[in-house]
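Section 5: illustrative case.
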């Protein structure tokens, strides 16, 4: 049975996140970036890149669980002369549903790079833009395209996804600010170095995966529809700190989910390895009204030991 530490790893590596972070002061999405996020948002992840390299643990986590789509995003940026480790302040990823329920994703990079410098490089590569309303769209490596939202913010991804995001900015599609659940969750976490918000369906799927066998019992089937969304923050200041809040529709559902996870924690601890036991001891789960709050804290050394455990390997691929 996967339990709280497995829940943490699952959420970090394959469910809610793609990422990692550092200990800098983070910035909320700027207005240009926020304007392109559709209302039918599945997940939004924002990573503060400015001090990523300052944390050895963060870099090791990045190398071990970096998803393919993030590798592709970083590679595409390098192809137009932007080094994510040097030039990017924040990198955000939005996954959203289209009218046909297909999931599309875009990235938004904001930083110290210069639009003039990037465009000069594209011109030197003989890459000509195509027009989409008022926007110039340029081809990137890996089949992606990009366009500048302002002088230091660019939008990139697969062509149809980028156009969908531009439609959102131009008022053709509702913006995330019209989705009160997601926008409220965003305001609760967007000052953290790494933060993410996940919609109802995504939260249900991730919690089912994280709970493992515990999700098969009737109690979870009863409460899963009452899970409205989730949000988390992650930082590597003085060790590793992970805080996840699952938002339920009522206090009873929150208390039930909290009890399920606690029971799973006790069960798993009986057969856990030493690093896994340390992770469980460093994890707390409580319900507060309609919220279930997970908190995990460990030293860098403890977390790096956990990263080499069989459990971490099992749920991070």
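Designed sequence:
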């Amino acid at each position: 049975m996967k339990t709280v530490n497995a829940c943490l790893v699952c959420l970090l590596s394959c469910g809610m996140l793609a990422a990692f972070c550092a200990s800098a002061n983070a910035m909320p999405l700027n207005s240009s970036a926020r304007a392109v996020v559709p209302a039918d948002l599945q997940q939004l992840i924002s990573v503060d890149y400015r001090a990523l390299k300052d944390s050895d643990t963060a870099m090791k986590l990045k190398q071990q669980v970096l998803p393919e789509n993030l590798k592709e995003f970083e590679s595409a940026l390098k192809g137009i002369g932007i080094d994510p480790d040097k030039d990017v302040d924040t990198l955000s990823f939005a996954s959203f549903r289209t009218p046909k329920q297909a999931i599309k994703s875009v990235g938004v990079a904001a930083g110290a790079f210069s639009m003039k410098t990037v465009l000069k490089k594209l011109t030197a590569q003989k890459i000509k833009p195509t027009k989409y309303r008022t926007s110039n769209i340029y081809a990137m490596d890996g089949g992606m395209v990009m366009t500048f939202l302002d002088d230091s913010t660019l939008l990139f991804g697969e062509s149809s996804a980028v156009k969908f995001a531009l439609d959102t900015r131009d008022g053709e599609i509702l913006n995330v600010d019209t989705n009160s659940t997601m926008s409220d969750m965003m305001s609760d976490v967007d000052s953290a170095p790494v933060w993410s918000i996940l919609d109802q369906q995504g939260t249900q799927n991730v919690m089912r995966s994280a709970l493992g066998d515990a999700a098969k019992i009737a109690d979870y089937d009863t409460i899963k529809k009452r899970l409205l969304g989730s949000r988390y923050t992650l930082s590597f200041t003085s060790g590793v700190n992970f805080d996840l809040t699952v938002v339920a529709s009522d206090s009873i559902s929150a208390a039930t989910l909290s009890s399920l996870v606690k029971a799973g924690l006790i069960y798993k601890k009986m057969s856990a390895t030493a690093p896994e036991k340390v992770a469980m001891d460093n994890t707390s789960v409580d319900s507060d009204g309609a919220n279930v709050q997970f908190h995990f804290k460990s030293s860098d050394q403890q977390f790096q030991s956990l990263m080499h455990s069989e459990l971490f390997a099992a749920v991070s691929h």
